[in-house]
User: What shape does this take?
Amino acid sequence: MLNIGADKLVGQDTILVSVGLPTRNRAHLLPIALNSLLNQTYRNIEFIVSDNASDDETEKIMLEYVTRDPRVQYTRQAQNIGGNPNHEYVLDKARGVYFMWASDDDSWDPLFVETLVDVLEKNHDYGVAMSHYYQQAIHGGEDKMTVRTHYFTNASYQDLFWHYLRNGKSPIFFFGLYRTDALKRILKRHFKVTARGPHLFLCEVALSMKMYSVEKILHTRLQDMRSNLERHPDHPHTKAEYRPLAGTNFLFTTLLWLLTSTVIPLRRKYSMVKLWSRRVWLKKRKIISEFRNYFKSLFPKS
Assistant: This one.
């Protein structure tokens, strides 16, 4: 495993922020993401790039960036370790007070990190902050920029949990700025492989910390409008989405996962169970339909 740049960090008096960028075969888009990150007005950042055994020009590009900017750390995995472990790897290497995952096909306003650090420094009871953003649709959608908003700052833990339990929209807070210690406590358990995996992760986040919405557009999210099956057919979460009883499994996996969480207070688990039961009741027809189809597949008509 190639590991370059880890000892080159330039110290400053400001708070250290870690940016973890897991990547694989995105050499054509990676410079756009890196340039916008390196152009942040907030300077005390370590950039942790983990190349998941790419077979394109990623390594060549990254070696140029390591030479250019001493804040960049580059690791090339010897083999494809999978998307979830690659995200966990960059978090594990983080030394900053704050941490964010950066997607290798997105871009950020120069004030993104500075603004979110300022928000969290002034609001110590919040665990994660995220700005409004542009969504740029590609592949199957009109190539246009759409403004996406969220208003979570004054939402209760229960409201945030309900949002992620029932809502299939883009889980943008996955890419917010987190307090590193709080995030690492959640990720003591590996990402759970299930349908709607990011939403399960954010259900746990929502019940364990407050989420701050920065009402400025500081992020551009490149959104591939093709189905997960077209984009990532071999990803474990994609496979989980197309297994029998996928929706039912998500609901019951969510219940067990959150009840056994060590970061969610007991009183919030109690309120979570009531909301979860409500969701099961509302989805009862779909659950029955999934079971009916599952048993039909076990005993096909001859």
